[in-house]
Here is the input.
Amino acid sequence: MPIFEVSHLVAGYGPIKALDGVSFDVNAGELIAIIGANGAGKTTLLMTISGVVPARSGSIRFLDQPINGLLTHEIVRLGVGHSPEGRRIFPRLTVRENLQLGGFTQPDRWQLKRDIAEACNLFPVLGTRMNQLGGTLSGGEQQMLALARALIGRPKLLMLDEPSLGLAPLVVVKIFEVIAGLTSRGIAVILVEQNARAALRLASRGYVLESGRITLSGSGPELLNDRRVRDAYLGE
Amino acid sequence: MSVQFFLQQCLIGLTNGALIALVALGYTMVYGIIGLINFAHGDLIMLGACLALSLVTALGLATAGPTATWLGISLLIVLCGLFCGTLNVAVDRLVYKPLRSAPKLAPLVSAIGVSFIFMNMGLFWIGSADRAFPELLPSTNLLPMEGLQITWKDLLVVIVVVPLMVGLTLLVQMTRLGKAMRAVSQDQTAASLVGVDVDRVIAATFFIGGFLGGAASVIYGLYINTIGFQIGFQNGLYAFTAAVLGGIGSIPGAVLGGLVIGLVRSLSSAYVGERWTGAIVFAILIVILVFRPEGLLGRRTKEKV
Here is the structure.
């Protein structure tokens, strides 16, 4: 039973169609991967779902409710979290303030405190940096902060855009470990990654995005063994 | 040229500077959040002063007793603050918001246009001649000495400006709205992705900047005692200069810049001559910006990307 459904989505900038009729869905508690080359439209897809980039046509439904046309903060408040490409933490706010903003929609202050404590449990290094400015963290720590910030918002569906980009291998392992645990907490995940192998290993299903269209889809193992995927994205 | 004279000039400078700072905050906050130099801000304050003058007349404050006078002044500050805050929000909604994704020059030129519209509204409201703003406060010296004087007018500036600045700092540092404001000023998209209603936060910023300007307009009337439809331009320019000097976008910077400009203005008027004041203030601005383009308290450090 899909909780989230995109159909025939078209979006773009000016005359360029970055998304040209994209359709896919996500079931409750499922992790799906969207893989594709640079410029395939992965980031635009997530930005369109979040309402940052306007959709030209097509529909986006979340929990049986159309969400295209809503403002970004309204979509977020419905439970669609989005950890954007490039982490986009607030560089001149402290780690604590970044985390507090993650819970901006949380009306219960004590719950927010508990959620922040839990996030620090997940990423102990953040707990030791609470009063440091976000911009002074290392790339890996910033990614952890971005992920923690998104989780504190208690999303029902979390979209992660390139969470492993530019990180040291050990940090990537840690980040993927946390991502793998999300579905057991009941969070559905859309994982957009260039690291196709790691993403498809975690995903129950995957989609291949090429020039704004879904050209291939299947279960994680199917795609991992697909000749075209292996040639184009797994570097074999 | 005694010590007392010097201290007196410093006092005048700091009082004027506090007033400039209050106006500078409106420039720096709006710049900080949407990168717009709101050229209409000075004229907004001129309109606030027009309202203050109309209210003083309507309430008959010029002939009221001391208690009624202080109550009246408090009421003026609140009403003019609300007026300027609301007007500022309305202008943002009508003029700047539709231009949010346009090139920076479009809202900037529009702000200059709003400035002229405001100026003409002021002309319509109080006429073309300068108007006397009634002396509501006694000008007796509160210090028991000759040569150095502090009057109620000077105290008024401190009594109003200091709590407003402390309140603003607390608001920006401690509250949920303040955090949202700082987040929006750093990354609007990221702020919206954590659930911040960016347009509301921008409107709140315009309101707060306008409110501070409205309070400044009342103090300006009571302190300078003359208002005219063109006071917005010159005072706005000094306040804008203060904001740039302190580091535009920085709240403590606007306060420091205001105090520095106030001091430089009064000292150069006293020791060099009034006619040089403008030249000296702006020469100092240029020198400082050559060596510290980011302003006194502006950001220099680069963040990791």
Q: What stands out?
A: The mean pLDDT of chain A is 94.
